[in-house]
TrEMBL record:
<dbReference type="InterPro" id="IPR041492">
    <property type="entry name" value="HAD_2"/>
</dbReference>
<dbReference type="InterPro" id="IPR050155">
    <property type="entry name" value="HAD-like_hydrolase_sf"/>
</dbReference>
<protein>
    <submittedName>
        <fullName>HAD family hydrolase</fullName>
    </submittedName>
</protein>
<dbReference type="InterPro" id="IPR023214">
    <property type="entry name" value="HAD_sf"/>
</dbReference>
<dbReference type="GO" id="GO:0016787">
    <property type="term" value="F:hydrolase activity"/>
</dbReference>
<dbReference type="Pfam" id="PF13419">
    <property type="entry name" value="HAD_2"/>
</dbReference>
<dbReference type="InterPro" id="IPR023198">
    <property type="entry name" value="PGP-like_dom2"/>
</dbReference>
<keyword id="KW-0378">Hydrolase</keyword>
<dbReference type="InterPro" id="IPR036412">
    <property type="entry name" value="HAD-like_sf"/>
</dbReference>
Amino acid sequence: MQTVFEQYEKSSEFLVCVDSDGCAMDTMEIKHRKCFAPEMIKTWNLFEKEDYILNLWYDLNLYTRTRGINRFKGLAETFKIISKEGIEIKDLDSIINWVETTNELSNNSLRREIEKTDSEGLKMTLAWSLAVNESIENLPQDDEPFEGVKVGLEGISKLADISVVSSANGEALDSEWNRHDLVKYLKALLGQEAGTKQHCIAELKKKGYDANKILMVGDAPGDLHAAQNNDVNFYPILVNKEGFSWERLLNEAVPKLIEGTFDEKYQNQLIEEFNSSLK
Ligand SMILES: [Mg+2]
């Protein structure tokens, strides 16, 4: 079977890569507010200081420089902070130790570690992670793309190839992008099975696009790093200003990319704005 990259055919000189969660699709707020955070409160019985802990979770995962952090890293960071405030988390050292040393932050790797250590903290972490998955599956399927996404993709697709580059699972991506009839604007829809974002951009680059004719569009510092590590341009979708960001992408950033005026000064200005939008 051919891989997605072998099948991929470049048809424009320009390539725009687009992240999905929190960038094109309005899915992050609901997942954190309805799934990740409340399941954490339940699993560790943190109701007593619920409001403080919830706000800390939202800050770490949505509104600060750690936006988009892996779920287990987010959990360990939250627990480190609240344990300093005197809130006791059972067997916290095992959780922190696993998060900091494992080479794979996944449920399967967590299961293997539990077999080895029989750690209570890790068992609770797995129970939480599975409960989160289940509650995400049970969310009403009424998530929408952000304002300006459809018009943006339609306009950009006339000027450049577009590929989704996301770390979400491929099935969920397929379902979301098809449900909103956005797949027709794409050359490829790449999820976690295709590799990390950095890897996907590197593979697409090999199709013959010049680095300065590639733009990565994302909402989290991880997207910026994936772009920078490939020497390609980055455009931020700013939290709570997604509609504005998409409009400016279509009317300013992509035209600059095409005209060759997406220069260092413009890039730095965008990155500065991005950094100051996350506390
Ligand atoms: Mg994102």
